[in-house]
Amino acid sequence: MLFKGYEGLSIRQLVETINLKLWSGKRYVTDAAGAAKRVRDLHKKITKDEAFKDDPRYEALRTALDDPNWNGVLVLDMSINPSNLPAQIKGLMGGSARTSFAPITSVFPFSAYAIAVAIRRPNRLRL
Fold first, then answer.
1. Of 55, 2, 54, which is closest to residue 25 (Cα–Cα)?
2. Closest by alpha carbon to 107, among 56, 40, 39, 60?
3. pTM of the predicted model as reported, rounded to 2 decimal places
4. Maximum CA pair distance of the chain?
5. Which helix (H) or strand (E) holds 32?
6. What is the pLDDT of residues 67-83, one digit of tens each?
7. Distance, CA of 89 to CA of 24 (rounded, Å)
8. Calpha distance 15→103 (Å, rounded)
9. 83-91 — which CB contacts under 8 Å span 24+ positions?
10. Residues 89-103: tens digit of each pLDDT
């Protein structure tokens, strides 16, 4: 999971080896260079690979990786164990014998204004 709040450089630019010095919290990342390589490989896949480059399902991810003003959370290869899902979601899966889902990558944009509002009025934030 990567939290990006650095304006002026995109995630793709920040994962270039020379820019790893701009990362904060590197001590909490087991392998910062490995994480950077995974992001570079993902970017290459969704922008160069014929099967993915024009697929609109990856547009939000392409934006998150390429837009220097995008801020948010990038979750790479998130695994979901269906046994941990709420009963309402399990009910919608009726008949599915899945024990796991394929790893997914998600992006969650945020803005400095939204964060400031959430900090000042946490009881009014509804997602």
1. 2
2. 60
3. 0.66
4. 50
5. helix 32-48
6. 999 988 888 776 677 77
7. 36
8. 21
9. none
10. 777 777 666 666 655
